[in-house]
Amino acid sequence: xxxxxxxxxxxxxxxxxxxxxxxxxxxxxxxxxxxxxxxxxxxxxxxxxxxxxxxxxxxxxxxxxxxxxxxxxxxxxxxxxxxxxxxxxxxxxxxxxxxxxxxxxxxxxxxxxxxxxxxxxxxxxxxxxxxxxxxxxxxxxxxxxxxxxxxxxxxxxxxxxxxxxxxxxxxxxxxxxxxxxxxxxxxxxxxxxxxxxxxxxxx
Length: 203
Prior knowledge:
- The chain folds into three domains: about 5-60, CATH 2.40.50.140; about 65-125, DNA polymerase, domain 1, CATH 1.10.150.20; about 145-200.
- α1 (about 65-75) packs across α2 and α8 packs across α9.
- It is about 45% helix and about 20% strand.
- The protein is α+β, with helices and mostly antiparallel strands and about 200 residues long.
- It is found in: Cytoplasm.
- Keywords: Cytoplasm, DNA damage, DNA recombination, DNA repair, DNA-binding, Hydrolase.
């Protein structure tokens, strides 16, 4: 297994690049080879994944380790092969794909080539909650709720959200109204009343 290859970008095509390493040209299939356009003729480090089949040995290349790791995870999903995983990575940034999986956003996932409703649900079933261990160093804030992070700067809003939760509203419901509440500058009681009004509109 090759972890990465260092060499000069000798060729860029629509599907792959060729990296010249001490006179050997390595063909590396990439999600988007043209990201290497500015690197042509330069020495680079490309992270690699070796895929072996009975009749074929293929090297896949990735400019970043997180793309490689996500690619490997996608291969574990039933119905997704190397070409499908490449298409997903080519169509969306890794953090967008991971967020969609964590948020169970199958509508977003079905926008990728070759991903239908069934495959999107399978991705969520197989990968939700299992990606944070793979890419924590690359996306340290990816699994944090940005709106909830903002609310910690507003203790009155935080108190109001806790009160609404105590009234029986779920985190998913709170996330829907929190952005609207965050725009306001109110007392705790006013936040609670405003939150209840917004909740009623959602029903």
